[in-house]
């Protein structure tokens, strides 16, 4: 990504339609800014139409390819939350960290491959400023039986 290209422009170039961010479904806030850090609560793999991209568990009834698409959708929801909180993605200096939660069977071992769906879209949008630290954790279940949930930490200008 050229240094003079804005993150908002990059979203347009990539034809990524940021959905209206979903509201919190429990007693928490979707975003929280502390100094120049913006924390984004875990976002499920909800499509712009409001349905889950993948429902269930990797290694059981969700393919790796569907898991990758679900991780991408969850990351796009993270970005939508960031824009809603900041007004513009161009206030972001860099992506510091992503956390991924993958609903999976105990025998499933391709968590990192699934989470690349989120990491890849982040780097597509933010370029070098999108390269981030990451944790990927397999869990037995997620809210609403979603297959993937992604959280993030951004450094702001």
UniProtKB/TrEMBL annotation:
Keywords in alphabetical order, please: Plasmid
Q: Which domain of life is it from?
A: Bacteria
* Residue ranges of every copy of the Endoribonuclease L-PSP/chorismate mutase-like domain listed in the record: 8-150
Q: Which residues form a coiled coil?
A: none
SUPFAM superfamilies registered for this protein in UniProt: YjgF-like
Give the matching PANTHER family: ENDORIBONUCLEASE L-PSP_CHORISMATE MUTASE-LIKE DOMAIN-CONTAINING PROTEIN (PTHR43760:SF1), ENDORIBONUCLEASE-RELATED (PTHR43760)
Stated name of the protein: Endoribonuclease
Q: Please name the source species.
A: Rhizobium johnstonii (strain DSM 114642 / LMG 32736 / 3841) (Rhizobium leguminosarum bv. viciae)
């Amino acid at each position: 990504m050229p240094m003079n290209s804005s993150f908002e422009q990059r979203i347009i170039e990539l034809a990524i339609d940021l959905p209206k961010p979903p509201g919190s479904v429990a007693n928490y806030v979707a975003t929280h800014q502390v100094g120049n850090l913006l924390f984004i609560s875990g976002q499920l793999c909800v499509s712009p139409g409001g349905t889950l991209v993948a429902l269930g568990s990797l290694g059981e009834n969700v393919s790796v390819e569907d898991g990758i698409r679900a991780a991408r959708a969850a990351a796009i929801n993270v970005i939508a939350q960031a824009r809603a909180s900041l007004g513009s993605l161009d206030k972001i200096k860099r992506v510091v960290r992503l956390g991924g939660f993958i609903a999976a069977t105990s025998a499933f071992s391709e968590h990192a491959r699934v989470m690349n769906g989120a990491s890849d879209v982040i780097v597509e949008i933010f370029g070098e400023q999108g390269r981030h630290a990451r944790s990927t954790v397999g869990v037995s279940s997620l809210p609403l039986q979603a297959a993937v949930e992604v959280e993030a930490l951004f450094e702001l200008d």
